[in-house]
Amino acid sequence: MIAAKGLLCLFIAGFSTGVFLFLYGRCFELRALKWLVGSAIAAKLALIIVGYSLFPQMNCNSDAAIYYFPEVQKAISGALPNRDYASSYSPLFPVTCMPAFAGWRSVGAFVLTMFVFESAMLALYLFGRKSNVTNSWRVAFLYTCSPISFYWCTLTGYNGTIIAFFALLALILVERKKDFSSAVSLVLGLLCSKLLMALSYPAVVCFERRGQWKRLVWTSLLLAVSLIIQFAMGMDGFAPIKREANKMTSGNVWYVLSPWIPADICDTFAWQALPMVTTAVVVLAMLATYLRRNFPSGTESQETRFDAATAFLAATNLAFMIFSKKAYTFYWLMALIFILHTLIASSRDRRTIVKWIIPVFFLGASTTVEPLLWGIVQTQVSHTPQMVVNSLWIIDVLTLACYLYLTVWCFKASLDRDRVSWRGEVPIEASSGEVCG
Is the entire prediction scored with pTM above 0.90? Predict the structure, then answer.
C-alpha cells in the first residue's frame, strides 16, 4: 500500500509537470488548461462520491475517520468541543462539516466538504479578481493536478483547504479595501478550521499601510470576543494549543538534527520550546523586512500589493514548515495556491520555470512517503531495514532543501517590486516554431 501511494503520487506529479511544460507557450495552452482543470474537478467529485459509496471504509486511518467523524457525531448530539470532549480543532469546525455529514453518514462527507472548499477557493482565485488570465489558469492546473491536492484533499480530506479558502477571501477583500470584512474572514477561517490559519494573518493585516492598524484592531477584537464566548460556554479556547504543543513529526529541521542531539537535551524544556521560539523569530524578522522594504512610497497599485502579499504569505507558511517541529506534508494544502501563484507569476520563461518546478515535483512525488519517517521512529519498528530508514532520512533532508529553496524564492518575490509587477498579460511564446495568431 505504501509503495502504491508513492507510485501514484509520482505518476500524478510526472503527468502534471509534463503536461504543463508541453503546453507552456503554445497557442492552444489556455483552452487546454481550462478543459483540463474542469475535467480534473469533475473527475475528483466523481471519485469521492463513487469511491466512498462503494468502499466506505476507504482511508480508515485518516484524520477524517479517526477525528472528524467522532467529533461531528458528538457535536450533533449537543456536546461542545473542549468542554465535553477533547479536540485539536477550532470550535466551529464540527459545524462546518455538519451539512454534508447530515446527508451522508460517511467519511466521504468530510472529504466532500474539503473538496467543496477547495473548489470554491479555485473559483475565487480564477474569477474573483482581475488577473493575468493565462497565469491564473496555469496556477489552477498545477494545483488541481498536484498529488498534494489529489491525495490529501480528494482521497483523504484534510482541512487545509478551509484555511486556503478563507485566507484567499481575506486577501481579495482587503484588496478591495473592505478591512472589516477581511478581518471577519481571518477570524472565521481560524474558528472553522484550526490555529494554523494564523499564519495568514501578517500578510492580510500588513497588506498595505492604509488601514493596517484598523485591520489589526478588528481582527484582535473579533478573536477576543470569540474566546470570551468560548470560555463563557465552558470551552477551553486554548486547549488546541496545549494539545498540539509537544507533538513532533518528521519533515522539519529539528527532526533532521535530532540524531546528533543528546537525549538528555531533547527532554529539556528549552529544546521543546526552541521550535516555537525560532518560528516566531524567523517570521517576525521576515515581517520586519517585508514592511521596511515593500511599498515605502504608498503609490503601488492594489494588484501589485496583492501579489506581494501572496508571496509573503507563501514564504511564511514555508518557513513554518521548516522551523516548526510539527509539519505534516498535508499542511501544504493551506498554502499551495499561494506558492504556485508566486512561482508562476514571477516566471518569464521556460528556464525560470525549470528552476522551481523540480523541487515542486519532488515535494509532490514524495508527499505520502516523507511522513513515514516519524511513524517508523514512533513505533520503533525493529525489523525495518536500516537501508530503508537511511533512504527515508535522505528524503527528509531533500524535503527541507526544497522548502528552503522555495522560501527564499517567495520571500525575495515579496520584496522585489520589479518582480511582483506581474499583472500585464505577457504574450504567449510560440513553441516548436508555432506561430500564434
Answer: yes
